[in-house]
Amino acid sequence: MGRRRRPGAAARHPREGGPGELSLPGQGAAMAGMALRMTQTLAPSPKAVVDIEGLSLTFQTNDGPVYALSNVDLRIAQGDFVSFIGPSGCGKTTLLRVIADLEKATSGKISVNGLSPQEARQKRAYGYVFQAPALYPWRTIERNVTLPLEIMGLPAAERKERARRYLDLVNLSGFERKFPWQLSGGMQQRASIARALCFEPDLLLMDEPFGALDEIVRDHLNEQLLGLWDKTGKTVVFVTHSIPEAVFLSTRIVVMSPRPGRIIDVIESHFPRGRGLDIRETPEFLKIAHRVREGLRAGHAYED
Amino acid sequence: MGRRRRPGAAARHPREGGPGELSLPGQGAAMAGMALRMTQTLAPSPKAVVDIEGLSLTFQTNDGPVYALSNVDLRIAQGDFVSFIGPSGCGKTTLLRVIADLEKATSGKISVNGLSPQEARQKRAYGYVFQAPALYPWRTIERNVTLPLEIMGLPAAERKERARRYLDLVNLSGFERKFPWQLSGGMQQRASIARALCFEPDLLLMDEPFGALDEIVRDHLNEQLLGLWDKTGKTVVFVTHSIPEAVFLSTRIVVMSPRPGRIIDVIESHFPRGRGLDIRETPEFLKIAHRVREGLRAGHAYED
Amino acid sequence: ADKVTLQLKWVTQAQFAGYYVAKDKGLYEAAGLDVTINPGGPDIAPPQIIAGGGADVIIDWMPSALASREKGVPLVNIAQPFKRSGMMLTCRKETGIKTPADFPGKTLGVWFYGNEYPFLSWMAKLGIPTTGGPKGVTVLKQGFNVDPLLQKQADCISTMTYNEYWQIIEAGVKPEELIVFKYEDEGVATLEDGLYVLESKLKDPAFVDTMARFVKASMAGWEWARQHPAEAAKIVLDNDATGAQTEGHQVTMMEEINKLTAGSTGALDPADYERTVKTLLSGGSDPVITKAPKAPGATR
Amino acid sequence: MKTLRAAVAFLLFALAGAIVALFSVHTGPDVWPFSSGLWLSVLVLTVIAWQGLSTLAAFRSRNARHQRLADLAVPAIFGLWLVFLWEVVTVGANVPQVLLPSPGLIVARLFTSADVLLADFRQTFLQAVLAGYALGCLGGFLVAILADRVPFLKRGLLPLGNLASALPIVGVAPIMVMWFGFDWPSKAAVVVIMTFFPMLVNTVAGLAAASVQERELLDTYAASYWQSLVSLRLPAAMPFIFNALKINSTLALIGAIVAEFFGTPIVGMGFRISTEVGRMNLDMVWAEIVLAAVAGSAFYGLVAMAERRLTFWHPSYRQRGV
Amino acid sequence: MAAAITAPGLRGISAGDAVPVAVVSLGLLVLWYAAAVWLNADLQIDAFARQGADWTTGDLIAGTWAQERPLLPAPHQVAAEMWATIVDTAITSKRSLVYHGWVTLSSTLLGFAAGTLLGIVLAVGIVHVRALEKSLLPWIIASQTIPILAIAPMVIVVLGAVGLKGLIPKAVISTYLCFFPVVIGMVKGLRAPDLLQMDLMRTYNASGAQTFFKLRWPTALPFLFASLKVAIAISLVGAIIAELPTGAQAGLGARLLAGSYYGQTIQIWSALITAALLAAALVALMSLIERAVLRAMGGRP
Ligand SMILES: Nc1ncnc2c1ncn2[C@@H]1O[C@H](COP(=O)(O)OP(=O)(O)OP(=O)(O)O)[C@@H](O)[C@H]1O
Ligand SMILES: Nc1ncnc2c1ncn2[C@@H]1O[C@H](COP(=O)(O)OP(=O)(O)OP(=O)(O)O)[C@@H](O)[C@H]1O
Ligand SMILES: Cc1ncc(C[n+]2csc(CCO)c2C)c(N)n1
Ligand SMILES: [Mg+2]
Ligand SMILES: [Mg+2]
Predict the structure, then answer these.
(1) Long-range pairs for A223-226 at CB < 8 Å and ≥24 separation?
(2) pLDDT for B6
(3) Which of B89, B182, B183 lies at the smallest CB-CB distance from A186?
(4) In the CATH hierarchy, which top-level class contains the domain A41-125+201-303?
């Protein structure tokens, strides 16, 4: 432990705010990060759920390499709610996939729950909501939701009960017996959220889960998710395009730059845990949202 | 012409604002709608591009019928920019598909450019952006975009030029040679937008085209689309979940209720054609947005 | 030259040496004929081929030819180069079979495809049912080789004096381990390889003339084969497109065949014919040949 | 309704014409010599019947029963018409019975030799075909799974599997008779070899058919190999597996019948065919062929029905009328 | 759908497969030798008894591997026969397996080409014309249940009567057998595009031909290749079957049959293995083409 950080990332993106390394509440400074790292071995709380250092990823394609992630440093502590926000194609999905062991980094280090991503995946450490619903067309909605439970060997009665509970949570009661192609886009997306929630993982990786939903349902699900997070102490890593959503939900917002994806800002958001939707009108909320928007805009400027 | 309207829809949704029939700028009242209909035969301007009366649609599924649309009345004039907004699963996509002749109504009347939807489709009256990108995996991005041009028989040079132009418009220059699975979700969606735009149809049917995009790109594309609409006098029918987006883009916002989809409010939005993004801070904008939100909320309340 | 197509009953082997010799030695050519010889095979029913126009003249066994006549293919025998029958039933001695009376309860291999009539007539004559059981014989449709006997899947199999019998011997079985029943000795011999044409075509004198020359040349070929068995076998080998025949086997076959053709002028002996018909008629349920067709062709 | 009435009118007219034509060919050349007159009218009738069929095929009913009935009627009428043409041509043009018997004779045989046909059917279909089909399909399937599970085998065994399964039946059949005896097991063995390869190829292709995202979902659950096989890869492979099952349902019958040419007890469809060809009883041969065709089609139909049941979700069954 | 495009199907023998293939082959060889002992022992014991010779187990094993007409020839016997008839015999000789292989291959390829074409044409018809689907498909299926060996002679006779002899009748029988998998696979494949992809074409009011070439065809390709691999193997079987009633004059089928007449098991096996090698080579060739085509279509690695 106590590895030295590589200086590259910080030097290359001299933006306000911490250059990626997140470890303490407040502006994550490199030194503070190191301090925590060192204490962590002594007193392992708050536990690092995801720990990424100097991670890069390059895709080889038919016409040359695509640099998707470059030198990403990130630490997510237990109980964090971290949102990734950034321009389309900047590498948010890729980063989430690396954490989930669906993609291998080209270089750099990453651990999940102190293990390699692969080990963590094999321990079923997380639930993943894909950007597309990925429902199996030969299963009804209910049986799509119970799929992970079947795999994990839960008894049938329990599976049914959980499916009922989580389909209700996403407002899909009454659609248990339908097949995926009989549902609207948003309904399919909600079914896939229910599927990820129903086995109650400690770590949730969600890739634009609410993208296809209207504001009302979205608000509703935001509240549900926040309640769940609050009650269960889950760690959530969340990709979104909505600035208000990011600010409302997160304890930390990670702003990414266009390709090759780098972390250009990390913004803390300290609303009380039991916050309501009304906080979105407060000046503090608007201030944070503004800062996120500025970060995003800067990222875009960076590209052209 | 001059058919009598059925009173049902209006009676059932006694909300402020016109009960569906859209014909005059301003609060569309039933009588005014009729008046226009009658004048239309005499002076056919503004031409009705889409004219829907008492339209219903029921899906037969393995466990009983799903009532997707019920008694919808709607008239879209040339040059209109109409947004559909409503809870997930309320029938927005279905309504758009009926207009595009991808779905047959169970009852009711509909005409597109004065023709049946089928005839209109056969005349290639519209461009359609699906809720999912639906790119062909065996074609590169460029060749996906030129697909409609190939079908319509444009020469190769022209096709290439158009692909270049519209891929640039959606910020995808440089990805011409990639295959769809090498693109991020938002990039795929943008490619599908370029594909719909590139053959320059007069009527654009767009199903949540910007759902998977970040705010900055979204704003950018909003402006591009508005510019295009302004310059070319296209008619646009647009499904969205974002209230600000609907208010910013549209001349009319159609708020729909949950299943069976009905029109519960139609809201006019008279910003000048050359509006900029900054109007989103104006009180009038906020007032309209508020009214849309109220409509949506009422729709949700209706359900439970 | 007049074109003639001859359809053989079986694959190229010394059984048909006369025709190959006649062709190879230019006898047909000398007779003003251009003869094409089409080999047969397990799937080829010569009567069907001639009915379909695929041949002018075919080689067939008389029982099969007579049966075909009844099915509406009016075949006429124009020559009978084979005087004697080469059919036998060959059994392993160890099965305990000594006489036909020992057959019941045994398994016998039989060729079908129109070649089963003599066997069925024989069994009918012996009064042995062919439906299996302790009182009857179990009949197997035998393939094209002698494996069922070698591998003891059958107690007896059908063999020809000139072919399968020698295959058994070549496989290492000693003659004294075998017991053979010749159809001739059992009084159920039927006429084998004869030349047949369609009756309707004989109305054409030109065709009759062509056939007369063909038969004459063929018989000369057979004569030559009797004189030069080794060379005849060589000619057969040269004509075998599959390249599967072996010289030793063909020479043996040639010698055996010569015993069957010896004494034939090509003319059909009415007595032989009557015997065949009688045998077939005795076959109970089997092809009833009610009326003797006008048989010997006016070939000479 | 209107289309239905038109179709029925066309078909009735064709039927009446067909009856007259049949009558005239059967009463012999004296009444209506098989002159160009007959052939011309048969041609015209065929055009009319086709018209009726096309109209009937376009028939759409909201009543599912009526629709099903119409869907069945089309191939049935089409087939009957072919039979009619066959009868008229064989009888009218005096085709020798040893080349092609007329349907009338064949049908008569079906009844007069029903007992023989039944015995043959039991021997060949109920024993050799069904046993061989089950073993061959199962074998191909299991080897595909095995190869999928053990990549070493996939690379080592599949090329050799290709080799073994591409063995031509004709050569294998005598060997199988040598090994498994004259009775049906040797035929079943041939069927096993014939059906093995299509199942292997299709299953291997099918197991690769699940999309990347669908697989990744199971990866996130750390699903075991067998779990992902059962819950994803096999369902996704179903359309391919059924492809093989369908192809095999016809191959199995051909294989068993061909194998019977190389030595059998004196019962079986292949035995009967080869024997009766030699005896010039072509009507019996065709009766067996008809039996084989009916049995094979019914077998295929069953498999296709199972496919529709089990892969209802595949886009090919969700086609909208385009 | 995207994944179906990448379906690798069966691969040919590539360099990387050499080791596994060798290991598995070795295992099979051992099995084969053992089976030869087991199957041939009875005959060998008989033969010893006939000679009245004393024998040991070693003699028995050696004997079972050296019989002239074994029930199952040992691999080296087959290899020697193949070497003799493939390498040591001039290819113009009738005893050369290269010559017979070529005879069979030519009608296989002709039949396969015709069968593929016919299969595709029928599938296209079935997918596009409702009347054809309903009236034709059941009869195509029925046609495949007709035992080919029963009608092959009739086909040969009829074609012979119109003057077609030699290659073409054999190719016709190959065609008859191999078009079927192509039809079945292609009907499925041409209907495999998902609904959204079809809808897209509808919005362009694409003609049937355009939808076919731009959507249905690319989607059907994985199905087509799976079918073609089956079809080419079946086509070879068809050519061999067709060589029986053509008078069994030349070709691997004729060799097989001739071997079978005379109980020449070694000859049967060498013809059989040559045929199987030929089939495997053809299937491998299809796989190569498949891989090249799917790669050109942007198949995901
Ligand atoms: N093919 C189908 N078969 C059966 N039911 C269907 C089918 N397509 C849509 N539906 C049902 O019709 C209703 C309306 O669906 P639609 O896709 O129009 O919703 P939507 O308003 O577009 O929703 P979203 O915002 O989530 O995309 C839904 O309840 C859905 O379940
Ligand atoms: N399999 C792949 N092969 C090649 N390039 C890829 C692949 N997957 C993603 N990329 C590239 O990597 C970059 C990042 O993609 P990613 O999907 O992570 O973006 P994203 O931030 O999730 O975008 P969006 O918001 O649009 O979903 C993109 O430029 C994309 O083209
Ligand atoms: C399928 C079939 N089986 C057996 C024979 C009988 N046969 C008649 S002549 C002959 C050659 C003898 O060496 C043989 C075996 C046949 N013709 N066809
Ligand atoms: Mg993404
Ligand atoms: Mg929708």
Answers:
(1) A223/A276, A223/A277, A224/A169, A224/A170, A225/A249, A226/A275
(2) 40
(3) B89
(4) alpha beta
